[in-house]
Design a protein that fits this description.
Elements (H helix, E strand, L loop, with lengths): L9 H31 L3 H28 L2 H24 L5 H29 L5 H49 L2 H4 L12 H13 L2 H31 L4 H24 L5 H21 L3 H29 L5 H13 L2 H13 L4 H22 L1 H4 L6
Helix pairs in contact: 1-2, 1-4, 1-5, 2-4, 2-7, 2-12, 3-4, 3-5, 4-12, 5-9, 5-11, 8-10, 8-11, 8-12, 8-13, 8-14, 9-11, 10-11, 10-14
């Protein structure tokens, strides 16, 4: 493969455009569904059940998604899942347009939608090392994750604007259009993926066990996964569910909530751009330092009663978080056997995404039992900080890792 700019790599361009459109469609689906359950079904208590139906199957099936990513062409998986998700959204649109979209239909279709997402995530992540040079992997991850942050910011904005004009029905229709457009850009002949590396014939269970054994044998991967779990359970997951509670506690309005959420996204976006432009050799130390910095800011976040200062702190949390994930992601992709890349990436994805719902549930339970939200976030942050400092002290292999790129 000749060295070329990522923006002259047609395969990469089609991949990130397709992924960007898919994220917009996915976030629009979330936003539209949230509004539909609260306004049309008049059942705020049902919202949690719907969101669990969408997210939990995705988490449970993610490991198997990695197995498929190693067995079949990743572009075929991504195209197929986006196409089916688009069709599901069209069905939801038609049901709502006919006033037939019930709570049960939404749970069933939402769970299928979320399950399919478990296959596209590992496939897309493990495709990157196949289409770019090794010294471009970090930059490629930064671009794709940066676009992801933009997608999750503008998706709800588009959804809200569309629903303001055409209602929930229009919201579902436009989200379906975005997802079907993403499938178009992921059409396998456009991406021209190379042959499948994994040619060993064995059962899916043995494939999964092989991937798990590979991860367990790597101290670098185990430490990195522990760092991601610490970040997403003790910091990001806990703070995400705490933000609306804190806004209400301090007498804020929806505009204050939007400011804090936007500041979090902008912080992640800016740091992602910086990471994409600079060389980071000490990837392991950077991830640990990013985790410690995030948790220190989280401690301050738990103690400040001013919504404007909380907005600034949310920016810092978003800014420091990406220094945890992107360097580790890039290093894992650089050093993992291509034959087993999908399974490794699925386990990494599980560490990133699987602990957010658990953090949501834990924080919500503690608050419902009468614990002060500030005390809960402070406790989470301190425990996470202790873990991070222990990794800094004990994780010599991870701490001393240097990338050649």
């Amino acid at each position: 493969m000749e060295q070329q700019s990522l923006f002259r790599n047609r395969t990469f361009i089609f991949l990130f455009i397709g992924g960007f459109l898919a994220l917009i469609g996915f976030s629009m689906f979330f936003m539209t569904t949230t509004w539909f359950v609260i306004s049309d079904l008049n059942s705020a208590s049902s919202l949690g059940i719907i969101l669990i139906a969408i997210t939990v199957p995705r988490i449970l099936m993610m490991a198997f998604g990695g197995v498929l990513a190693d067995k079949f062409k990743k572009t075929t998986i991504m195209f197929s899942t986006s196409s089916i998700q688009g069709v599901l959204l069209v069905i939801i649109f038609l049901l709502h347009n006919a006033n037939q979209l019930t709570f049960l239909y939404l749970i069933i279709l939402g769970s299928i939608f979320g399950t399919l997402d478990a296959f596209s995530g590992p496939a897309g992540t493990s495709l990157i090392p196949k289409i770019v040079q090794k010294n471009q992997i970090k930059q490629a991850n930064a671009i794709i994750q940066g676009l992801g942050q933009i997608g999750f910011v503008i998706g709800p904005i588009i959804s809200g604007s569309v629903m303001e004009i055409g209602g929930v029905t229009a919201g579902y229709l436009v989200s379906a259009i975005f997802v079907l457009l993403s499938a178009f850009f992921m059409f396998p002949p456009f991406l021209k993926e190379g042959p499948v590396v994994n040619t060993i014939k064995q059962t899916p269970f043995k494939d999964f066990v092989e991937g798990l054994s590979y991860v367990k044998a790597s101290r670098f991967l185990i430490t990195g996964i522990l760092i991601l779990i610490t970040l997403n359970f003790f910091a990001f997951g806990a703070i995400s569910i705490a933000i609306p509670i804190l806004v209400e506690t301090y007498g804020g309005t929806p505009i204050n909530l939007s400011y804090i959420e936007a500041a979090l996204g902008v912080g992640m976006l800016i740091s992602t751009a910086i990471i994409g432009m600079i060389k980071i050799r000490r990837r392991g130390l950077t991830s640990i330092a990013g985790l410690i910095a995030t948790l220190i800011v989280a401690v301050a976040f738990s103690q400040i009663p001013n919504l404007y200062i909380l907005t600034a702190l949310a920016f810092l949390i978003g800014f420091t978080m990406t220094f945890v994930s992107i360097p580790f992601f890039a290093s894992a992709q650089e050093n993992t056997d291509p034959r087993i890349m999908g399974r490794v990436m699925s386990i990494v994805f599980l560490a990133m995404n699987g602990f957010d719902p658990l953090a949501y549930a834990t924080v919500t339970l503690l608050v419902s039992r009468g614990f002060d939200i500030q005390l809960v976030i402070l406790s989470f942050s301190i425990v996470g900080l202790i873990i991070a400092l222990s990794i800094l002290w004990r994780g010599h292999t991870f701490r001393s890792y240097k990338s050649n790129y």
